[in-house]
Structure formats: structure tokens, C-alpha cells
Amino acid sequence: MDALHTAGIHFAEALQAGPPWLEKFWISVTSLADPKCVFTICFPLAYFLDRKVGVSVLWIGLVSEWLNVVLKWFLFGERPFWWVHESGLTRKELVTLRQFAVSCETGPGDPSGHCMITGAALWPLVTALTALASRHSRSLVVKLSPFGAYTLLLLAVGLSRIFVLAHFPHQVVGGILAGAALGWGLQGHTPATRTVGFFVVAALALLLGSLALHSLVIAAGIDIDW
Q1: Cβ neighbours, 10 Å, residue 16
Q2: What distance in Å separates the CA atoms of residue 175 and residue 179, rounded to the nearest whole number?
Q3: Has residue 126 been placed in a domain?
Q4: How far is the C-alpha of 216 from the C-alpha of 226, rounded, in Å?
Q5: Catalytic amino acids?
Q6: pLDDT at 225 over 80
Q7: Angstrom distance (rounded) from CA 71 to CA 223
Q8: Does a structural domain hold residue 153?
Q9: Which one-letter DSSP state was computed for residue 93?
Q10: Closest CA to 184 of 121, 112, 111
């Protein structure tokens, strides 16, 4: 893992060595793609366009947020900003990295929540836009443009997370793949006809489930908050 982490640090160095104007771009992307934006921006917009799509975005966002936390408890995952010092790499070689206001994230880092939750929650919106484009155009470029934009967005989010030293590249790749797979798998199981009470109960069940799981892991002697 040390070799993988070291390679990730060098990749982050290369990103930070890019043109100065890219710094604002990466920081803006990582801020706009914060998972909470799924609930405050993406869900209302999707619901306004189509109720079923909006509910799907909300449901998948909720489940993926929960699953991301649980996965991090078991996969752990170092954060580049902390690892580069704790590993002693800075004593072995010259490492030129910059710190930003969003760099010092705590907690396990694998998989990337930004990539996983955004990738999962936007999947139903992207497929809906693809279906809409297919009905109004025969052009393959137009039909594939929603998925093209989706791919570019996730790539930009992933690179931004590496740039600010919040994640290693392999954590970003894992987050993107997990998010796309989760969105694809859950889209067909959206409880669109359920009442608000169902979602309240589901949210409470996920909360209580995570608290119970947290207690079991701690009882097993695993320090989640290491």
C-alpha cells in the first residue's frame, strides 16, 4: 500500500503543479460536488422536472450516503494530507504539496464520498435526460451527451479531490465505480409510490442500523475513529 500511496502523492504533486487558474477551478468543483448538494440542489431540480426522477435521486442519495459511511468503517483508507507526514515520506524525499482550506478532512478516506454519492444520485437524472434526448434526436452524439457530461463531471470531481489532498487516486476510482454501480442497481427499485412516512422510517432504520453496526465494531476492538 505504501507504494500505491506514494504514487498517489506524486500524482497530486503533478496536479498541483498545473496552471494557477486551475486551482480555483478544482476547489470550486470539490465544493460544488459536496454530497449535501445532492439533497439541496440536485433533488429539488430533478423533482421539479419529474417527480419519479426526483424521488429516485433522493432515495439513491440517501442509501449511497449511508453505504459510503459503512464502507469507510471497514476499508478505512488513509487521507493524503495526513499520510504524507505520518508515513515519513517527507523525511525521505522532497515533497512539494500545498494545503487548502478543504484539505484537512478527518476520518477514513476509502471510498471517496464525493465521487460515490454524486455518481450514484445523478444516475437516474442522467438516464432520464438520455431518454429525453433519444426521443427528440436521432443523433448519437446528442443521445450520449448526458452520459458524456456525467463522465466528465465525475472525472473532474475525482481529480479535484486528489488536488486538495482529500483522497488518493485509487479511492477516487473506487468511489466512481461504486457510485455508478449503485445508481444502476437501485434505479429500478425506487419506492416512487411510497408515502413520506416510508422515507422517514427508512431514514430512521438506516440511522439505527449504522449506530448498531458502529457499536458492534467498537465492541470487536476496532477503533473506527483512529
Answers
A1: 18
A2: 6
A3: yes
A4: 16
A5: 114, 167
A6: no
A7: 14
A8: yes
A9: S
A10: 121
